[in-house]
Amino acid sequence: MPRIPSIKERFNPTVQISQQAKQITELQAEIEQLRNAESPELEQQMAVLRDQLKEHGGEMEVSVKHIDPNPTQPRQTIPESSIQAMARTLAKDGQITPIILVPKGKRYLIWDGQRRWEGASRLEWKKIRAVIAPMPENLHRNSLLTFIHHEDLNPLDKAEAIVKEVANSVIELEKEAIPTVLSTVLRRLDRQQKSSQLSALVGLDAAEQHLGLNQLDLSEEEFGILEVLLDLGLNPGSVKANLLSMLSLPLDLKEAIRKQGLKAAHALALAVLTSKTLKISDREANRERMGATEHVITQEMTVAQTRELVAKIKAKFLKTESPQTKQIEQVTRNLERLSIEALEAASPEQLTDLKKLLQKQLKQVKSLVD
After folding, report:
1. What is the value of pTM for the model shown?
2. Closest residue by Cα to residue 302 from 312, 314, 310, 291
3. What is the layout of strands, in order, in the sheet containing 67-68?
4. Do residues 113 and 89 make contact, with C-beta atoms less than 8 angstroms apart?
5. The listed CATH number (3.90.1530.10, 3.40.50.150, 3.40.50.1100, 1.20.1330.10) that belongs to domain 7-136
6. Are residues 220 and 188 in contact, defined by beta-carbon separation less than 8 angstroms?
7. Ranges under pLDDT 70 in the chain
8. Neighbouring-strand partners of residue 107
9. Which of 118, 150, 168, 189 could make an SS bond with 83 (beta carbons 3.0 to 4.6 A apart)?
């Protein structure tokens, strides 16, 4: 399993915490590793963490209104259907397990249990049972490492969270520039046949990763991006191939992913329905794409069926060009490339023949146009 940084490393060493809190922190690190490995023991270990927190800090009833969602939580998408299902469970069976909170001033941020909190809010509960964990020094990184390998974290949320973490870690690098810099360095390493060297660094410790990156002749920005990705246990090539394409999706498709449960593969298939591809206005293209998206979701279409639908829409707007049409386009391009230098270099006989040919063809064109 790739090396995953311990939560303990991310706590401020200047802050004095109790021995019990240290034990909790160590247990949190184990939870992180289990999450990243998608271990079946995860829920059992989460129960152990709650028990530890209860033992040392006690279980509390916290006002629902005093709790805030974690703004740095990578999982920004919780489908409404999932929240409603949780609300029904809470209404029927009550709250079985407490949520885990971290203190922030006089309020609390959710570390684990946002669906339960959302469900409780839907039911207009006044209070919810919770246990309190120590506040880590870097909450965004903590949250990212907690959720980054969850299979239910959609690629859009994951991509945005990773880019945010890179931007937080690499000085003077804007979020918008990160995909471009990453794509550029990966293409260069591929041309230099060094991609395998980069991939081999994923499972190594920080010192070995640092040494390996130094051997790839990278700029400061490139080094910083790759170092952050490797430190998160991610293969930079996989991040580019599977995640960064999510960032360039049209806004309507991003909204469909977040609010309607549209899958990433379906979104990428629908993303080709643009004004440029269909040769229509932006407004018309948006209407076609949004209609197709709604159809894909309501009919629960597969990726293959989605691609078939996209092909039909494209065929509706794009007429297949005949060989004769392509021939005319080729001749037009050739005439456009005919420079004055080439004409000056031609013999009088060649110029005469060309003039006669053009006059003949022009006469035929006029007869069709007039």
Report:
1. 0.51
2. 310
3. 60-63, 127-132, 99-104, 107-112, 67-68
4. no
5. 3.90.1530.10
6. no
7. 1-58, 72-77, 134-153, 319-325, 370
8. 104
9. 118
